[in-house]
Amino acid sequence: MAGRSNIVVSAAVREALAVGAPVVALESTLIAHGLPRPRNRDVALELEDQLREKGVTPATVAVIDGLPRVGLDEADLRRIADDTAVLKVSVRDLPVACATGRTGATTVASTALLAARAGIRVFATGGLGGVHRGAGDSFDESADLVALATTPITVVCAGVKSILDVGATLERLETLGVTVLGYRTSTFPGFYLQHTSYDLDWRVGEPGQVATVMAAADAMELASAIVVANPLPTDQALDPALHDRVLTDALTWAADRGIRGKSVTPFLLETFHLETGGASLEVNINAVRNNVSVAADVAVAWARTAA
Ligand code: PSU
Ligand code: MN
């Protein structure tokens, strides 16, 4: 299979993996469709620098002119951030985007898949996709869940996006066999909010503990992901009253405008950023930064464990 793979792994990422040095994958949908231009470009570059400063090789994932790439050069990173024509590419879109030579940003689902195929074990994002509110009627459930069920990768996130039905998403993660670890918390984080009302079964305090869990999962050849749920500090989270008010409006407007499919999440995030006067944007960026920082520590611990 390796010989036929069309995945292009950058030289920097290939060299790091070859010597067992720490690598963290980053997704590009949050850059292209989750954060507004031009701020998104600065964030994309900053996240990579944040990893390099910790001695970790960044591997941002995207489809560029029909090639699934793990590890982007700066020109491609800028293109993903700047170009308004960049598609949102989930797992099911990958073969078509590649076959037709398109350029697209990868979601948690497609990033996890490509990164794992390339041999990367740790991945950072903002908030996972999951079960949308009203999914009982709409059946809108993110492909992220299926990817997490079938991809052995550790994903550091601030929980699942608070625009979702968090309780239903946690139930699905349980059903799908996805391990969920609270990072220095026993309560599931709430993305824009520091916490939700849901308790977690497992809590870890140190990056090395995550690496130990990864090794135990490998030892029994588990195929599913490990979610490391990392809450925002209280002073970086969104005001809960503002959050609830904007969410109610955003959900109503999404329904009124008939927003469907892969447009739902970008629409809700953009509405949040507009209606909170940019406050949710700062919160979102801080969540991603914090997750990248923890992911770097986990990747370093993993490199030691696996050595
Ligand atoms: N985290 C963020 N912002 C985002 C996302 C995650 O802080 O925009 C993206 C991820 O790419 C995730 C996607 O996979 O949102 C979920 O989209 P959907 O609900 O359509 O599966
Ligand atoms: Mn959806």
TrEMBL record:
Positions of Mn(2+) binding: D140
Subunit notes for this chain? Homotrimer.
Which GO BP terms sit in this record?
nucleobase catabolic process
Which catalytic residues are annotated? E27, K161
What is the top EC class of this enzyme, as a single word?
lyase
Give the EC number(s) under which this enzyme is classified: 4.2.1.70
The cofactor binding remark recorded in the entry reads:
Binds 1 Mn(2+) ion per subunit.
- This protein's name: Pseudouridine-5'-phosphate glycosidase
Q: Tell me the protein family, please.
A: Belongs to the pseudouridine-5'-phosphate glycosidase family.
Q: Which organism is it from?
A: Frankia canadensis
Pfam family example for this protein? Indigoidine_A
Q: Which keywords describe this protein according to UniProt? A: Glycosidase, Hydrolase, Lyase, Manganese, Metal-binding
Catalyzed reactions: D-ribose 5-phosphate + uracil = psi-UMP + H2O
**Which positions does UniProt annotate for substrate binding?**
K88, V108, S142, A143, D144
GO MF terms, alphabetically ordered:
hydrolase activity, acting on glycosyl bonds; metal ion binding; pseudouridylate synthase activity
A GO CC annotation recorded here is: cytoplasm
Instruction: Tell me which cofactor or cofactors this protein depends on.
Output: Mn(2+)
What positions belong to coiled-coil segments?
Answer: none
Query: Which lineage?
Result: Bacteria, Bacillati, Actinomycetota, Actinomycetes, Frankiales
Q: What does this protein do?
A: Catalyzes the reversible cleavage of pseudouridine 5'-phosphate (PsiMP) to ribose 5-phosphate and uracil. Functions biologically in the cleavage direction, as part of a pseudouridine degradation pathway.
